[in-house]
Design brief:
This protein is of the alpha+beta class and 203 residues long. Helices cover 15% and strands 40% of the residues.
């Protein structure tokens, strides 16, 4: 489990395209400290497994399904990425519960800077809109953010300078894709309520 508090901006140093997958080599001095084979690291919000590491770099394999559902497929050598290690049991939950299981992708639609924060508007797939609510939590490229406004096919967030400086949201531009993970609690509630309604209809 992650919390959506990005630890560092990493960089793609190598990309190997396989028949039905892709292998990334990534640089991240903070997240590779003490890393072991089999550890999990979130890359732009996608939970990946460390298959090899040396120095401040690690290698991770990305399956075709993950490439299909996320924006990792557009990454190339030199791309900057958000990196986060799983939260430790008993640690502070600085953001919200993040699984690292991307639900879909959106696109940066608009950016409006101001003196103390920046307004960012992001497109939202129709099948995810019901999980996104005003003042609720959403994960954008692995960043835990609070929804300011939730529309039928978009949502907006206000991003503070620290987040802009330490994550990819500081460099993403209109038209760029982002990974989205909605609040898992909303999905569980929907599932439970759906089962309850079905049981009631059967009586």
């Amino acid at each position: 489990m992650f919390t959506g508090i990005v630890e560092e901006l990493g960089e793609i140093t190598a990309v190997e395209t396989l028949d039905d997958a892709c292998r990334f080599r990534l640089r991240g001095p903070a997240v590779t400290e003490g890393a072991r084979h089999g550890d999990s690291i979130a890359v732009n919000g996608v939970c990946l497994t460390v298959v090899d590491h040396e120095g401040d770099e690690f290698t991770a394999d990305v399956m075709a399904e993950t490439l299909k559902r996320s924006s990792l497929g557009v990454l190339a050598v030199g791309s900057r990425v958000n990196l986060e290690r799983p939260t430790a049991v008993g640690a502070r939950l600085g953001g919200h519960i993040v699984q690292g299981h991307v639900d879909g992708t959106g696109e940066i639609l608009e950016r409006k800077p101001s003196e103390h924060w920046e307004f960012v508007k992001i497109s939202l797939p129709a099948d995810l809109a019901r999980y996104v609510v005003e003042k609720g939590s959403i994960t954008v490229d692995g960043i835990s953010l609070t929804v300011v406004d939730a529309g039928p096919d978009f949502f907006t967030v206000s991003v503070i300078p620290t987040t802009l400086a330490l994550t990819t949201l500081g460099i993403k531009q209109p038209g760029d894709p982002v990974n989205l993970e909605v609040d898992v609690i909303a999905k569980y509630v929907e599932r439970l309520l759906g089962a309850h309604v079905e049981q009631g209809d059967a009586r």
